[in-house]
Here is the input.
Amino acid sequence: MRRTVLAAAMVALVSARLAPAKEWAKAMFNATSHDFGVVARGSKVEYRFLINNIYLEDVHIASVTSTCGCTVPQLTKTTLKTYETAELVAALDTLRFSGPKEATLKVVFDKPFPAEVQLHVYCYIRSDVVFEPGEVRFGSVPQGQAVTRRVAVSYAGRRDWQVLAVVSPAPYLSAQVTELGRIGQTPQARVDYELVVRVGEDAPPGYFKDMLVLKTNDPNPRAAQVPISVEGHVTPALSVSPGSLVFVVRSGQPHVRTLVVRGSTPFRILRITGPDERFQFTVPGDARTVHIVPMRFVPTDTPGHVRGKIRVETDVAGAAPVEIQVNGEVIGGSP
Here is the structure.
């Protein structure tokens, strides 16, 4: 009787775990569909579906396929441990395809249980608008410097077609369009513009990826706005590593570390201060783009917490001091 009850309980438990087989995998996605709207021919456009493992078991994605060659899926990671995340990047092929397109991305899981999640992607690739290049790629931009990039915008169709404005999602990104010429008559007319995009001096450090939107006089409201991707990385004028310092030392035993301070151009370190007088630094006196700074922490005989910041001041004009967060512990001497 006991075995029967135990077996029934196990069956019920397994059934309860398998019952939502269609939903457990779906719950890990931030979205199951995305509409790109209208995009120009040749533009680089992608959307990243976020996958977050919210379960205790490891999750493994066996395969990802697309029902349309217009959308190419790629995973950043196939195995996710608890709370780990991955991205499924859905990239449009705007060179080989045009017109209204729809794709279903099938994501197949084999661990911890078999499941399939279907993601849906929609777009309209217009062949009458062409960007060259297909995206605005800035690469590495030094913080505090303004950098511009140019894109050729071509339109084939109505002779009176116009770009009215460019809308930017970020205050440090600005854009200007200049009409270069109009050739021919409708429907063979061609209109050419130059799009100049600028990253300003006030751009914060870090990676950015945004969409500029060209607003046109197209009578179709859906086609009146044409996006273009903008991507780059603003590198700080100064950086220091490690960004935080964590240590546990015994009283009376020095702790030695090395700090690395980097800049985009040669600079001098004026002074380095620690949370208290127990921190000692050997500061190079010349100008370099990379400074290797030996640090020595000499604890007293008194145990306790060590909290505060290491502050590095330089002669870089307009650059704020860089800081390292310190979280240490001094414990009793040798047992």
Observations:
- Residues 1-19 have pLDDT under 50 and may be disordered.
- The longest strand covers residues 115-132.
- Residues 135-235 form a domain with the Immunoglobulin-like fold (CATH 2.60.40.10).
